[in-house]
Amino acid sequence: MTIREELESRERQYLSPYAALSSNSKGRRREERQCDIRPVFQRDRDRILHCKSFRRLKQKTQVFLLPKGDHYRTRLTHTLEVSQNARTIAKALRLNEDLAEAISLGHDLGHTPFGHAGEHALDMVSPRGFKHNAQSVRVVECLEKDGRGLNLTWEVIDGIMNHKTSGKPHTLEGQIVRLSDKIAYINHDIDDAIRGGILKESDIPRRYTEVLGNTARSRLDTMVHNVIINSMDRPQIRMSEEVEEAMSELRDFLFEHVYMNPEAKGEERKAINMIKNLYKYYMEHLEVIPEEFLRRMEEHHETEDRMVCDYIAGMTDTYAVKKFQEYFVPESWNF
After folding, report:
1. Is-contact 273 205, C-beta < 8 A?
2. d(CA 209, CA 19)
């Protein structure tokens, strides 16, 4: 018996009846020889962790555009916090921790430079629209490994596609990530907003803090514990009505006071215009796009719009700024 088979046997003996077992995976689009050490979801986690798109998350915006300080979240640190929340919940519920971690690490691989501002810009200019969850799936299926993709399992791809609030993941591990994403960004965005002088802890209405807690630590603890307590030995991942309502209303509060705050997001208009101008430039000058994108467009009979969106979405904040300066700012004006 291989190490992988021993691990799969342990899953069958220990995990909840509601867990997604590695040995029962619906498989990959392309069949592969099994690893002798790692079950399929652990293997997917490793593939995501080692891919180039994952490394680029360290220079992509979470909320604050190119903040002046080392302690603000990036898209990478957000991803790691989602992963930690998801693993904690999955382990407590005896669900598949490897699957929850793989989905967490892959859920934002398709995010644009400048966070949701970049996503909004591409959604406005692309005839087909643009959604970062669908782009994350495209990254792992079509763009990584020179167009071969990572060939992940069905369960991981399903969790990545359905991690948004409107999504409905088919596995409990996917449902965990969907909630863990909210728990992570609500808590760390408050922390970053306080650090940036946009909010004070006392600004958060008491009707939320009385339910969730009046510190970042207590709110995170409340939310995670509440998910575990209300999901234990059940075929659904959920919160209590009181905590879910408070979390949802706190999220609305953040949209009003942080996500739409001119002081926090004052540079977003510039970022949106930058992405829109890059899109227009590339649509008119396809020849400057790297050869690998042009080749894939021809081989897969894809549209020019699809290729341009792929290229821009893969950029880091700093690379997008660099290309914008290259195309639109006279060289003598660059400092």
Report:
1. no
2. 33
Q: Which residues pair with 159 in a beta bridge?
A: none
Run of H or E residues at 295:
helix 291-299
Q: What is the C-alpha to C-alpha distance for residues 11 and 293, in angstroms, rounded to an integer? A: 41
Query: Global pTM?
Result: 0.96
Q: How far apart are CA 317 and CA 264, in angstroms?
A: 17
Tokens 């234990």 belong to: 232
Closest to 130 (Cα-Cα) out of 113, 147, 154: 113
User: How far is Cα 93 from Cα 115, in angstroms, rounded to an integer?
Assistant: 32
What is the distance between the terminal CA atoms of the chain, rounded to a whole angstrom?
Answer: 62
* Tokens read off for 7: 């691990």
Buried b / exposed e over 293-320, threshold 16 CB at 10 Å, is beebbeeeeeeebbbbbbbbbbbbbeeb
Give, for all 335 residues of the chain, the pLDDT tens digit. Answer: 999 999 999 999 999 999 999 999 999 999 999 999 999 999 999 999 999 999 999 999 887 766 667 888 999 999 999 999 999 999 999 999 999 999 999 999 999 999 999 999 999 999 999 999 999 999 999 999 999 999 999 999 999 999 998 899 999 999 999 999 999 999 999 999 898 888 999 999 999 999 999 999 999 999 999 999 999 999 999 999 999 999 999 999 999 888 877 766 667 889 999 999 999 999 999 999 999 999 999 998 999 999 999 999 999 999 999 999 999 988 777 65
Asked if 150 contacts 171 with a C-beta cutoff of 8 angstroms, the reply is: no
Length of the chain: 335
- 36, 89 contact by CB (below 8 A): no
